[in-house]
Specification:
The chain is an alpha+beta fold. Strands 1, 2, 19, 20, 21, 22 and 23 form a seven-stranded mixed β-sheet that branches. Helix 1 packs antiparallel against helix 8 and helix 5 packs antiparallel against helix 6.
């Protein structure tokens, strides 16, 4: 399809206009290949291949964790961890290494935490089956409200027989609250700023293959009902444009999604979906980060269109090196682009800094998306000097050549990339 398009364009040339906007570069450490874990990228044949180190592990800590279940980093790079078994939220300042515990006797088993720019902290408590809201007075976090299962006129909309077990929570800039509930396949629970149920957002669907339908012929009634019941959303994120993202653990089809306002998935890229996602977050530039329990490639870095950039980190029984996890359970990114990952069973928190290699890849994509094509060409070529099999660089160079009506050169890049 792409080749036909280029051949047609060789005969029908048109003028192209290019606009330029500023792109803020990101800082990084130098690339290294001495990492104790492997980094993988999509290769020229469309499969995963080993690559230079994209993120270097720089920090590991256990600040008294019992079962860290969720992590959130605010705009000031203050870290909040929901520790289920310690029944508290741990607030951690990595500059001073000071930490405090938040929450009183009301917390029974917090598994989700989110803090707004105004200082409101929301906590999803899986054990108490409540969502809590706290406000910061400059010194302490004070409990303001708790929200349980919808009652009254909204009870039927939620489902009178549907359990309410909040596990994760995010809040958009308009104050709307989005909650994942354990075992609820109806979708993400959406509340207004007063905690009142509005509707289900982005309901999950069951995707059945021919093989799945054939297998149903040999299932019991209960097994069929289970197979055709949508899975509940595992975790979610919201970006600075109020776009909602989600992941679904054990989902075999589309397990990572980015939604439009109507709750429809708009990711079209090749993410190499995992069926064991545990958490997802998005940075200020739209790059997506997810963690799962894969043996290789625990941490995924994905571009805003849904294309996998890097996978790294390992799941092991007994961690002996940085980049190894027993059960990665949460991920977030600070203002410098460092990736923070918590391990619920390992009871640790690890931090990874972007290398020169990853920095160059991401700035090439940012330059291309901003229309700064000469800068993008320079950076894509630098990427290929570091990794000659990085397929996204060939695709980017081909698309730029096509824009500049250099169709033969574009075709060469696309053929190398098998695009």
């Amino acid at each position: 399809m792409k080749k036909r398009f280029i051949l047609c364009m060789l005969a029908i040339l048109s003028l192209l206009s290019v606009f330029v906007v500023n792109v803020k570069e990101v800082d990084a450490k130098d690339s290294t290949d001495t990492s104790p874990y492997t980094t993988q990228v999509i290769g020229l044949e469309g499969d995963l291949v080993n690559s230079s180190t994209a993120y270097e592990a720089i920090y590991i800590a256990n600040i008294g964790f019992a079962n860290p279940s969720d992590i959130f980093i605010d705009d000031n790079d203050i870290v909040y961890i929901a520790d289920k078994d310690n029944k508290c939220i741990i607030k951690y300042n990595h500059t001073t290494h000071e930490s405090i515990k938040i929450g009183g006797d009301e917390l029974k088993g917090p598994t989700g935490v989110y803090v707004t720019n105004e200082g409101h902290m929301y906590v999803a408590d899986q054990v108490a089956k409540l969502l809590y809201r706290y406000e910061f007075d400059g010194v302490n976090y004070n409990l303001i409200a708790s929200y349980g299962k919808p009652t009254g006129q909204n009870a039927s909309l939620y489902g009178e027989e549907t359990e309410y077990i909040p596990t994760k929570v995010v809040v958009d800039s308009a104050g709307y609250i989005y909650i994942t509930c354990q075992g609820n396949g109806n979708g993400i629970v959406k509340l207004n700023k007063d905690g009142e149920f509005i509707s289900y957002y982005a309901p999950n669907k069951v995707v059945r293959s021919i093989a799945d339908r054939f297998a149903e012929l040999f299932m019991s009634k209960e097994e069929k009902e289970s197979a055709n019941t949508p899975k509940g959303t595992t975790n979610l994120a919201v970006d600075n444009r109020n776009t909602i993202y989600s992941v679904i653990d054990t989902e075999k089809s589309v397990s990572l999604k980015k939604f439009n306002v109507n709750g429809q998935n708009i990711l079209a890229g090749d993410t190499f979906f995992s069926d064991s996602y545990k958490d997802i977050c998005v940075d200020e530039k739209g790059f997506i980060y997810a963690v799962d329990n894969s043996l290789e490639g625990v941490i995924s870095v994905i571009d805003p269109e849904g294309n996998l950039l890097f996978k790294f980190g390992n799941t092991v029984t007994v961690p002996e090196n940085l980049g190894q996890f027993i059960s990665a359970s949460g991920v977030d990114v600070d203002s410098k682009g460092n990736i923070w990952v918590i391990d619920s069973l390992g009871k640790t928190m690890q931090v990874f800094m972007r290398t020169d290699y990853a920095n160059t890849v991401m700035n090439a994509l940012l330059s291309y998306n901003a229309g700064i094509y000469d800068r993008a060409v320079l950076l894509y070529n630098q990427v290929l000097e570091m990794n000659s099999s990085f397929v996204k660089a060939y695709v980017g160079l081909g698309e730029i050549a096509q824009r500049e009506q250099q169709f033969e050169q574009a075709l060469e890049y696309f053929e190398i990339a098998n695009y």
